[in-house]
Amino acid sequence: MGTSGPRSNDPEVADEPACITTIAQTVAKAIPKLRTAFETHRSYEGEDNPSGEEMLAADVYADELLESRLGKLACVGTYASEERADPTQVGTGLSVAVDPLDGSSNLGSNNGVGTIVGVYDSELPASGRDLVGAMYVLYGPTTTAMVATDDGVTEYLLTQGQRKVLTPSVSLPDTGTVYGFGGPVPEWSSAFRRYAMSVQRRLKRRYGGALVADVNQVLSHGGVFAYPSLETRPSGKLRLQFEANPIAFIVEQAGGLSYQGDCSVLDTEPERLHQRTPLFVGSPEPLAELIETLGGAA
Ligand code: AFP
Fold this sequence. Notes:
It is a single chain. The protein is α+β, with helices and mostly antiparallel strands and 298 residues long. It has helices at residues 16-40, 57-70, 190-200, 211-221, 240-253, 284-294, and strands at 44-48, 54-56, 76-81, 88-89, 94-102, 113-120, 131-139, 143-149, 152-159, 162-167, 178-181, 204-205, 223-227, 238-239, 257-259, 276-277, 279-282. The chain is 29% helix and 29% strand. The chain has an eight-stranded mixed beta sheet, sandwiched between helices. α1 (16-40) packs antiparallel against α2 and α3 packs antiparallel against α6 (284-294). The structure holds 1,6-di-O-phosphono-alpha-D-fructofuranose (AFP).
């Protein structure tokens, strides 16, 4: 849990739904500049992010642009991102945790990339139960946004500065048709390998290496996404605050389930800003089978 409590009594953040709408609109307005940076900022920076991964110039550009845009909003108090060691205090209000350019290593092969934003009513690191909203943008052949609040999930098409509703109430089917599992297979646990064998008998494999793009396929067709615990990385690869919590919030609000080996991702005790977690999200039926098969072994 964060070091200080929620600040929803603060008049600046009283209207959380309005703040989430403003954040989503602000991210949407930054998209033309972000898309341009995919072409102009493709080299490596020569520096690692706090998780020890080499940053592209586009990662740094996206982080600075979003910090400057979101940091100016009256309802945002703290900006934190996967690309900077500590949160930046920008005012008083909600905390935003951002993966500015999710899957940036996909830029080289021109595959999907995304932006993820978690909006927490608490200081960071925070519990997923402190999320009041979450969104992601998928930069695919078209640019779409998935925005979740306590009222559900809406999918938008972002085009020519406009936000058009594509799906007013995104809802996962019970089973679905696709699965995407990350990490080297020899490093999976034997329990997870057993589960993968079972799933591949009935679902179609779809894995692209960017969380947003892979989860968007699950939200579109139903199914399951997993980045499990690995032999050399017991906590998996994905970051709790910036990736796993916001994605789990979106999936659960769409009627799906999330899991991290013991419980819902949203119930994970937050310990560090950049902590990692195994992540399993998707339709209720394949997730129920996964929880039964893993039985505590992520
Ligand atoms: P990059 O930002 O380094 O491309 O990593 C993307 C990511 O954090 C997440 O978006 C993917 O789900 C996952 O890593 C892919 O990891 P693998 O490269 O091991 O498949």
